[in-house]
Amino acid sequence: MTASELNDLSRLCIHTITTKPWAIEVAIEKYAAAGVKGITIWRQWLEEKGPVEVGKMVRESGLEVVSLCRGGFFPATDKAGRQAAIDDNRLVIDEAAALGTDLVVLVCGAVPGQTLAESRKQIQDGIGTILDHARAAGIRLAIEPLHPMYADERSAINTMKQANDFCDLFQDPMIGVAVDVYHLWWDPDLKQEIQRCGKADRLFAFHICDWLTPTKDLLNDRGLMGDGCIDIREIRGWVENTGFNGFNEVEIFSDSWWQKDQDQFLESIKKAYLNDS
Amino acid sequence: MTASELNDLSRLCIHTITTKPWAIEVAIEKYAAAGVKGITIWRQWLEEKGPVEVGKMVRESGLEVVSLCRGGFFPATDKAGRQAAIDDNRLVIDEAAALGTDLVVLVCGAVPGQTLAESRKQIQDGIGTILDHARAAGIRLAIEPLHPMYADERSAINTMKQANDFCDLFQDPMIGVAVDVYHLWWDPDLKQEIQRCGKADRLFAFHICDWLTPTKDLLNDRGLMGDGCIDIREIRGWVENTGFNGFNEVEIFSDSWWQKDQDQFLESIKKAYLNDS
């Protein structure tokens, strides 16, 4: 099945990190004025006004909060560090509830030099520990597998297969996956693992941007849709084929774009969304 | 099974690219004087003297040529480009024979923006086309899966599972795999795919270096063994457990090390080889 045609912005969501120079009130106003319908809020954008106030502002603008980014980072070299991570994840869940979304994205974490096996065990323990709290708050948790180049310091979960295997450990409707094309596009098993994810009703979120060649920085050199090599439309087709009809979330970390005029960037995002996603 | 103890340099091989500032005659002299036993030669180091002369120099020094790097890069956007790649791979095979090694490492290639499925098909076609020539020359071909961050421009073969699946397509004793810890360390399926590789008698080469955190450059910021996060000893144990008792090949691309005194670098390599590999 091919992807649906994107004829309007009704399923376009933007992450606040994408337009990093904009404060939360600016992002909300600009996105809403541009006809964007969804917003995923990164925690830094809650710091000044708090989640209740931000949630109110978003609703008044007509936008929908798609998710809160991000919980996770469970691994640590000592018990105190792991407990601090658990406490912080409980806080993220409370913030999400106060904000008025039912989804938290988890970047699961890793500790440089700690074995991936140990980090994966600590991630499992961490998610297991916060699960009751998430369920009580009505907050779903989306494990986001990260590109293998982040395995040593950002996430020890690096493929869709791993994310699916992880979800299988819990078999819980509150735990699912955030599919991000940037991290996963290269994987020859991607199609089948997206199908597996959908069959288990755990495909919670879909993030888009593009892979640039050459990539000049491992973290902040992501591209606008259409500027790189990812066949976003093909992957979106696989995602929609599972029954997913949620937002297409634009999440771009880019030193280059952040230095430019953000109003023009927002226009470029709208255009790339309609033409190259 | 744990890895063997590395008490001497009898299985140490160095790639000429590792000490990039050294011309071929310098590299041969320095490696031999340092007690290194193997050398893998990159094609650039054949340009001046040619493979016959270089092979003679290596043998006179007491070193062994472990492999010639590198063939591959089969995908191209047009037929002429793909034919040029095939011609060049036939030449690499001839050079390897003239040099006096029986192994060519293949970095299989990719074309920015071309679909990975198409590139993989072109790689399969390319290898199939040169196979008779390789067999006639007695040259084995080692497919080296590259880290997923190179999928768009260097290789569309990015995991051990893919490399094994590729070899299964041919079922030919001349086609195997080069296992490089830098590209593969993050993969949760690595142990089982190394076992699969060994069972099929196709584990042809083992390359070592380390993954640095942070990694400042996608290509030329690899680390000396022990300076990064890779559990080289564990992976070496898996490799040896298949029956592999060939060389441990040090292949480091590093702008940082290349700017330093190469004699001191060679001493650091020996020390890291014995203590951190």
Give a quick precis of the structure.
The structure is a homodimer of 277-residue chains. Chain A has 277 residues and is an alpha/beta fold.
Describe this structure as you would to a colleague.
The structure is a homodimer of 277-residue chains. Chain A is of the alpha/beta class. Chain A has one domain: TIM Barrel (Alpha-Beta Barrel), CATH 3.20.20. Chain A contains ten helices and eight strands. In chain A, helix 3 runs parallel beside helix 4. The model of chain A has no long low-confidence stretch (mean pLDDT 97).
Give the CATH class of chain A.
Answer: Alpha Beta
The CATH architecture assignment of chain A turns out to be Alpha-Beta Barrel
What do the pLDDT scores of chain A average to?
A: 97
Provide the low-confidence segments of chain A as ranges. Answer: none
Which structural class matches the secondary elements of chain A? alpha/beta
Fourth-level CATH superfamily of chain A? Divalent-metal-dependent TIM barrel enzymes
Number of strands of chain A: 8
Q: Based on the structure, what is the oligomeric state of the protein chains?
A: homodimer
Helix residue percentage of chain A: 40-55%
What count of structural domains of chain A?
1
What does the largest sheet of chain A look like?
8 strands, parallel, barrel
Give Rg of chain A in angstroms: 18 Å
- SSE order of chain A: EHEHEHEHEHEHHEHEHH
* Broad shape of chain A: globular
